[in-house]
Amino acid sequence: MLHLFFSICLLIFLFLPIESSAFPWTMDEDIVEAKKSFYHFIVDSSVTRFLNEDHNRYASRAEIKARQFLSSRFLFQIKTDYTYNWTEDYHYFRPSEFNIQFERPDGKWFFGRKREIWDWADSFWNRGLWQPSYTDDALRPKWAGLTGVFRHFNYESGQIGLFGSFIFIPNFTPPFENKKGKLVSKNPWFIPPPGKIGSTNIVPVYKTPHPPLTDFLKLSFGGRASYKGTYIAYAYKPMNKIKLKSPIKLPLYKEPVGSHEEGYLVKTPLEPVILHHHLLSGGFVIQTTEPTPDIKGNTNYFLKASITYNHPETHTPGTAKWLFFPPQREWHLSAKGEMQIKDQEEETTLHIGYTHRIQMEGEKNIPSKVFPDIKKQIFRDDLFQFSRAVSGGLSHSIAFDKTYSAQFKIRVIYHLLHEYFLLSFYGSLMFEKSFSIFISGDLLFSDFPFTIEQTKKNIDIYANKSRIFGGISYAF
To answer: How confident is the model at residue 352 (pLDDT cuts 50, 70, 90)?
Structure first.
């Protein structure tokens, strides 16, 4: 069956192009590439097959991407994606950059939404601390920028960047709707809250009030300074991910609705909580270059290190009894080594990296002590936020001639806490620098070497999202 699927992919030219900014690949390659092009316009289509689902079910979609528009007087930069998903019957619109840039003798002004490389490890390990993202695909999030005013100062061997804003745009989660108190979605990455609260017989009837727009008028400011490979960055801003709280109320004076077998219904409002946090990152990037005379190219070596401190503000739910799990203070330590071999026709990059999160246990509130299983049941998305993991990968690109080229990427991550492997791969053939055929996938398994049966088994309480997808793309 798997071989048949690969054959179908190749015959009908399936694929969704994977951008460099999407995890598990890095974001800095995409930003550098965008600066080289006058404009970029892409149309593509794809089909996805989740290995853990019904063999007859495939997800199809079409996507349009646009970026980088210039005028004679100023630079008007846009990077946006529009996707229509036939399977979900849903329209996704993801403006990740939308700003006006003004050149100055000592740097630039930016007004609007802009992506920055605040810390290389943030997107590499899928933390999403610095900048928001569109997470309708947990393994291919679309990284977006902060919104406000940016000022860059360039000097010899470095740069200083400042940021300020009163507008907060959070992460965009998978779409869902409330049907008679149940949160449902056709998006395969949506994780609904539990039907029953832990081991109790309480069945929540969820209410999802919309926060007023004034809640998104929040102060943000920060800056980043770099000099000869070293950098330090600080920001005070709202956390990209909105927290939720809910009152613990069981009205005993009312006749319970439901039954002992199916559970008793309890109205459960989910109220959003927007918390500020202090974010501090620092690190270095060391690069050495050796000429390779036999292939008329260079071999570059990179050593990258990063340390990040995340300090969320304390939130007191109020006098009523609320179910709320506060975020913890944490340190993130990361290191990565890379070797890049490059000539006029080919480029090969190898990497190995490690990250380690140190979570500082604060004073736990009562719900955190009483309902640890419920917290685990609700916050399942941390499966792909790598807090302690090892990564190794290879990417290779080759230009056969001026007519066509090929690219291949593979990355293996081992999550030390959840004890599973994530194998991601991507391959493409491009013709005339415009028409592309792609195939890609993400395989989750617990033991190495893996089998196809492993990719269909769940990991602890997490549903296995192993998939293969492919399609075609045309760039203007």
So the answer is: very high
Q: What's the rounded Cα separation, in Å, for the pair 323 and 270?
A: 10
User: Quick count: other Cβ atoms within 10 Å of Cβ 257?
Assistant: 12
Is residue 453 exposed (0-12), middle (13-18) or buried (19+ Cβ within 10 Å)? exposed
Give SS3 for 31. Answer: helix
DSSP string computed for 115-154: ---S-HHHHHTT--SSS-EE-SSTTS-EE--EEEEEEEEE
- Between the CA atoms of 62, 385, 242 and 115, what dihedral angle is there, to the nearest 10 degrees? -60
Q: Evaluate the CA torsion angle 105, 106, 109, 114 in order and state its sign.
A: positive
Question: CB within 8 A of 20, min separation 6: which ones?
Answer: 26, 27, 28, 29, 30, 33
Q: Give the list of residues 6+ apart from residue 186 with CB closer than 8 angstroms, or none.
A: 87, 88, 89, 90
470's enclosing H/E stretch is: strand 467-475
Q: Where are the beta strands (DSSP E) in 313-451?
A: 322-324, 329-342, 346-360, 388-399, 404-415, 420-431, 435-445
Residue listed under structure tokens 């930003």? 31
If we measure between CA atoms, which residue out of 49, 22, 125, 51 comes closest to residue 464?
51
- Amino acid identity, position 216: F
Nearest to 281 by CA among 304, 303, 305, 307: 307
CA distance readout (Å), 47 to 16, 29, 342, 470: 8, 26, 33, 6
pLDDT for the residue numbered 240: 95
Looking up tokens 């617990």, which residue turns up?
446
Residue 272 half-sphere exposure, CB side, CA atoms within 13 Å?
A: 16
Residues in the chain, total: 476
| Strands 202-207 and 263-269, bridge-based pairing | parallel
Q: What's the pLDDT score for residue 325?
A: 80
Amino acid found at 243: K
What confidence tens digit (pLDDT) does each residue in 444-467 have?
Answer: 999 888 888 888 888 876 788 899
In sequence order, the β-bridge partners of residue 300 are 289, 340
**Dihedral class, residue 162 (left if φ above 0, else alpha if ψ from -120 to 50, else beta):** beta
Q: How far is Cα 233 from Cα 400, in angstroms, rounded to an integer?
A: 41
pTM of the model: 0.86
Q: Name the token pair of 432.
A: 């005339």
Q: Are 21 and 34 in contact, with CB atoms under 8 Å apart? A: no
